[in-house]
Amino acid sequence: xxxxxxxxxxxDRAALLAILQATAVxxxxxxxxxxxxxxxxxxxxxxxxxx
Length: 51
Prior knowledge:
Elements: H1 12-22, H2 28-43
Helix pairs in contact: 1-2
């Protein structure tokens, strides 16, 4: 089975935040870091720092 992921879109940010919050596993500071990584990826399309 092959899994393909599409490029991250700005509209994905809110959904990712909702998923992180809904799991009730992550602390607020962990969610903040996750969103920083999302923002970094959105600001620099094609970057390979965080895949």
